[in-house]
Design brief:
This protein is an alpha+beta fold. It contains 19 helices and 30 strands. A hairpin with a 5-residue loop joins β9 and β10. α6 (166-184) packs across α14 and α9 packs across α11 (351-367). It is globular. It starts with a strand and ends in a 25-residue tail after the last helix. The model is unreliable at 413-417 and 771-794 (pLDDT under 50).
Length: 794
């Protein structure tokens, strides 16, 4: 038996660490937490200073027994769980469960799983930090008290099987309030004028460029009158101003910024990002992934400088020390970075790991590179018929600096205006007029939250910490308060006025607005619960109060305040509020009376029912029954109209008259129906959507068979190849030809490759070659050949 026992949380971490230690060390995993609060109201002894009553779960009893045996046989036990509060608490629970002396047991921490970091930790052990343990306990206990006391109130006053959480309910409130802002938004429009000109460049070639009028017109008549005034105008360059500027790289990744950027650049959910980052950390590829620090160690700075000078040249290197802005930055001592700066990309079978690692490498290296040098040109163009000025802007990247590697994305696509090159303009120069366009544009409400932008908002409010963002967002979706969905948007007409060939014409175009993909939308139950909690437990859902609680957890971790006193100060007034609300609060269902059915004269309303939101047609005669129908996907209690509600009821009544079966095909019945994605026919356990023009009320068996066979044919033609070893990879036929589908990523297949003969390894290699594009504004400079990529060290 080894003399030393090292205990970590995960088998993957144990395997990596074992490779760095000799035969005198045995490394075992606790498989996460081994003890937790039981799921009962006896978990916390409120009258005994909020003492928690921890228990070992059934599935962990064999793990604990094995660890006890190993600990008893070892000379020294090393607790090597993660370095944040959660990890510190796991070490304390291990010490308690294994009967280890907390005041003597070695506690080791490391920010990265490398041989030098592990050896340094072994050489410098410490004891379990009980202040960190208390901070974690305080969060766990307070959140349990809130959940266990609020949830029964929700069962009685709103709907059964609901639950509430201190941070989660605040996150839901943010999403509900944003949706209501969008609903109430009053759209305004104006006319923006852009003129298009031609001018020769140095080589004599004519270049087309755009100049915009700073003024906007409220009315179409005003825009039209302006264009008519400029019929036949001659345009001259009034002045040209060149402004040098610099662009500075972003700081290395924290947990929050990694989640945001992985969402924007890779399309990853917050949970996916953290799972992948965990794997990279446990395999020794990156530093610890739960951190709110942007600091880099001296060793990392030196390694980054060496790699930049080697791969890009001395002029690209510029060492920077970023300072963490958040006062409570306590989760770790360094930003998220590669453990080996010389490894630019991985050669893993897991595409998500490869892409996330490359993102982290680029962001880290870019943070230590020189500023980009930009020359911005602003030209003023004036007509001879009015005193108005048109402004043309162009941008040239004189030295790409960090942009050679990386540029941060934004949540708002409009923020990154594309500015290209302008011709070589000079004051007094005449420019050739092409056309002028006045386009009607509409104001936009604030955007709905994505998972990443919600994390950004929570962080800005001081709510939650790196370890809480992902579970918070997962929880509110699992509970059904929020859903990640798509909104189809609506069609809208807008006017376009064009001046060309000395004539002003007016045309009407169409656009879709309000369409969103993958945004966080509140459900009806989420909105109703939020309203109830705000009305009766305002302090719990107050943003500032929730942020103050987080600061108090930080103060417990620093040893400034006592955790039991902090819990008591919170619990006593909270408990009184629960008792008051439980007794006096009105029962709520979000009910709205929409109006009267013009045919029957019956009242039509919407509300939350036992199985979700529904429309109710109220009976007005004795012996009649109310008619109920569920809302369609995308419809909400707060915004549904009387006409939409009546349409749902009519559809239900029509569906009730549908035949149970249309006939048979291949020995199985074909049955009609309507689901959340529209009308369908069901055959042999599979669903086939009806085509445009088909009607459930009139469709027959022959047409149903045609729909089934057409779908089968389309599916057969689309699927070229699948792989039993990795079901996530498929070779498909698309609108623009064959391609490889890997999760949400679509990969082009080179023309010299036969799609039908591709192997899984070839598909993975093509996926790894297709990296996320790092675009610079305007694309003004020719693309330079990237430095050769290095493979991970074996």
């Amino acid at each position: 038996m080894a003399k030393n026992l090292v205990i970590v949380e995960s088998p993957a971490k144990a395997k990596t660490i074992k490779g760095f230690l000799g035969n005198d060390f045995e490394v075992k995993s606790s498989y996460g937490h081994i003890r937790d609060l039981p799921k009962s109201d006896k978990a916390i002894d409120v009258k005994n200073n909020f003492a928690p009553q921890y228990e070992i779960s059934e599935e962990k009893k064999s793990v604990v027994a094995d660890l006890k045996k190993a600990a008893k046989a070892a000379d020294v036990v090393w607790l090597a769980t993660d370095e944040d509060r959660e990890g510190e608490a796991i070490s304390w629970h291990l010490a308690e469960a294994l009967n280890l002396d907390v005041k003597k047991t070695n506690r080791i921490v490391f920010h990265e799983i490398t041989k030098s970091a592990i050896q340094n930790a072994i050489d410098n052990p410490r004891l379990i930090d009980m202040h960190l343990v208390d901070a974690q306990q305080a969060r766990r206990i307070l959140d349990r008290l809130v959940g266990f006391e609020l949830s029964p109130v929700l069962w009685r006053k709103v709907k059964s099987n609901l639950s509430a959480g201190r941070v989660q309910s605040v996150a839901v409130r943010l999403i509900v309030e944003r949706e209501r802002e969008i609903d109430k938004f009053s759209v305004t429009s104006n006319y923006r004028v852009a003129a298009y000109f031609n001018a020769p460049n140095d080589n004599g070639n004519q270049i087309s460029f755009k100049a915009e009028l700073p003024e906007k017109f409220k009315q179409e008549d005003d825009a039209k009158a302006f264009l008519e005034k400029l019929i036949g105008a001659i345009y001259t360059v009034k002045n040209v101003e060149k402004k040098p500027s610099t662009r500075t790289p972003s700081a290395p990744f924290t947990t929050s910024t990694l989640q945001q950027e992985a969402s924007r650049k890779l399309g990853s959910s917050v949970a996916q990002t953290m799972m992948t980052a965990q794997k990279l950390y446990e395999s020794g590829k990156i530093t610890y992934m739960r951190t709110d620090s942007v600091n880099l160690s001296d060793t990392a700075l030196n390694a980054a400088e060496k790699e930049i000078r080697k791969s890009f040249g001395d002029k690209y290197s510029q060492t920077r020390n970023f300072k963490t802005k958040s006062k409570g930055a306590q989760e770790a001592h360094e930003a998220i970075r590669p453990t080996d700066m010389s490894v630019q990309s991985l050669d893993s079978d897991d595409l998500r790991e490869n892409r996330l690692y490359e993102l982290i490498w680029k962001r880290t290296i870019a943070s230590q590179m020189a500023d980009a040098q930009i020359e911005k040109t602003v030209a003023t163009i004036i007509p001879d018929k009015t005193a108005d000025e048109f402004i043309a802007t162009g941008e040239v990247i004189m030295f790409d600096g960090f942009l050679k590697v990386y540029m941060e994305s934004t949540d708002d696509e409009d923020e990154e205006a594309k500015e290209g090159l302008l011709p070589q303009l000079k004051p007094g120069q005449k420019v050739s007029f092409e056309q002028m366009i006045a386009t009607q544009r509409f104001s936009k409400p604030l955007p709905r939250y994505t998972e990443a932008s919600l994390v950004k908002k929570l962080e800005a409010l001081g709510i939650g910490r790196p370890s809480t963002y992902a579970p918070t967002i997962s929880t509110i979706q699992k509970r059904g308060y929020v859903e990640k969905g798509n909104t189809t948007g609506k069609e809208r007409k807008f006017q376009v006025l064009t001046l060309v060939d000395d004539k002003v014409t007016v045309s009407t175009s169409k656009e879709f607005f309000g369409a969103d993909k993958g945004k966080l939308l509140p459900t009806d139950i989420g909105s109703v619960v939020t309203d109830f909690l705000v009305a009766n437990f305002e302090i719990i859902l107050d943003y500032n109060f929730t942020a103050e609680i987080e600061k108090e957890f930080d103060e417990i971790a620093e040893g400034v305040i006592n955790w039991t006193k902090m819990i008591k100060d919170f619990y006593d007034p909270f408990h009184k509020t629960v008792e008051t609300a439980g007794a006096n609060a009105e029962r709520v269902s979000g009910a709205r009376i929409l109006g009267t059915d013009p045919k029957s004269g019956k009242e039509v309303s919407v509300r939350i029912g036992r199985y979700g939101p529904l429309v109710q047609l109220k009976a007005d005669k004795e012996g009649e029954k109310d008619v109920y129908a569920s809302l369609e996907p995308g419809q909400r209690i707060e915004t549904i109209t009387l006409e939409e509600a009546l349409a749902i009821i009519n559809e239900k009544e029509n569906a009730a008259n549908l035949p149970s079966a249309l006939g048979t095909f291949e020995g199985h019945e074909i049955t009609p129906g309507k689901g959340r994605f529209g009308p369908f026919v069901k055959h042999n356990g599979k669903y086939y959507s009806l085509k445009k023009g088909d009607d459930l009320a009139t469709i027959d068996n022959k047409r149903a068979i045609e729909i089934i066979e057409a779908k089968r044919k389309a599916d057969a033609e689309k699927l070229i190849k699948t792989f039993d070893e990795n079901k996530e990879v498929q070779v498909l036929n698309g609108r623009y030809g064959p391609y490889i589908a890997f999760g949400k990523l679509n990969i082009k297949i080179p023309k010299d490759k036969d799609p039908g003969s591709l192997t899984l390894q070839e598909c993975l290699e093509l996926a790894n070659e297709q990296k996320p594009q790092t675009a610079t504004k305007g694309g003004s400079t020719p693309k330079k050949k990237a430095a050769p990529k290095k493979k991970a060290k074996k």
